[in-house]
UniProtKB/TrEMBL annotation:
<dbReference type="GO" id="GO:0030833">
    <property type="term" value="P:regulation of actin filament polymerization"/>
</dbReference>
<dbReference type="GO" id="GO:0055037">
    <property type="term" value="C:recycling endosome"/>
</dbReference>
<feature type="domain" description="FCH">
    <location>
        <begin position="24"/>
        <end position="84"/>
    </location>
</feature>
<protein>
    <recommendedName>
        <fullName>FCH domain-containing protein</fullName>
    </recommendedName>
</protein>
<dbReference type="GO" id="GO:0007274">
    <property type="term" value="P:neuromuscular synaptic transmission"/>
</dbReference>
<keyword id="KW-0446">Lipid-binding</keyword>
<dbReference type="GO" id="GO:0008289">
    <property type="term" value="F:lipid binding"/>
</dbReference>
<dbReference type="InterPro" id="IPR001060">
    <property type="entry name" value="FCH_dom"/>
</dbReference>
<feature type="signal peptide">
    <location>
        <begin position="1"/>
        <end position="27"/>
    </location>
</feature>
<dbReference type="GO" id="GO:0031594">
    <property type="term" value="C:neuromuscular junction"/>
</dbReference>
<dbReference type="InterPro" id="IPR027267">
    <property type="entry name" value="AH/BAR_dom_sf"/>
</dbReference>
<keyword id="KW-0732">Signal</keyword>
<dbReference type="Pfam" id="PF00611">
    <property type="entry name" value="FCH"/>
</dbReference>
Length: 163
């Protein structure tokens, strides 16, 4: 029974590790990739925005093909900023979820440990009681053995005296 409980506990630990570590690892990697991608888009957009602004003539740029190009670059910059904000929010939310899950796991572990300590105390008390009863049994057994010997001696004397 003890081995089964220990095996069940180990399987639960492995399952918890898989369920906690895999999503956490995935989330960290996803947030890092999103952040890196957002930063790369931002660098790209800023590079082209600087080129357009360095040309100086913004009125000519706002018309025609250059206007479309400018709006694409600006939209890319906005997309990059929103991706960075989304990656930070995603990281924050996953951190909160991870913390709450870890806190719940810690509470369950603490309760389990308290129960285990209580059961261990009961087992120790039961073993003490068993040891005390065993000692008492051996003492009573010795007394009974001595009494049987004396009774046998007394009976032997009475047979010898009567006979």
């Amino acid at each position: 029974e003890g081995k089964r409980v220990q095996l069940h506990f180990c399987c639960c630990c492995v399952l918890c590790c898989v369920l906690i570590c895999s999503p956490r690892s995935f989330s960290k990697h996803r947030a890092a990739i999103e952040k890196e991608y957002g930063q790369a888009l931002q660098r790209l957009a800023v590079q082209y925005q600087k080129r357009d602004w360095q040309r100086g003539n913004t009125d000519a740029i706002t018309s025609g093909v250059f206007g479309v190009w400018r709006s694409v670059v600006d939209a890319t910059a906005q997309t990059a900023a929103s991706r960075l904000a989304a990656s930070e929010e995603y990281r924050r939310l996953m951190g909160q979820a991870s913390r709450s899950f870890r806190n719940a796991k810690d509470m369950r572990t603490k309760r389990g440990l308290e129960q285990l300590q209580r059961v261990q105390g009961e087992v120790v008390d039961a073993l003490r009681e068993l040891h005390r009863l065993k000692k008492s049994y051996h003492q009573l057994s010795h007394i009974a053995s001595v009494a049987r010997e004396k009774a046998a001696d007394a009976q032997a004397r009475s047979v010898y005296v009567c006979g």
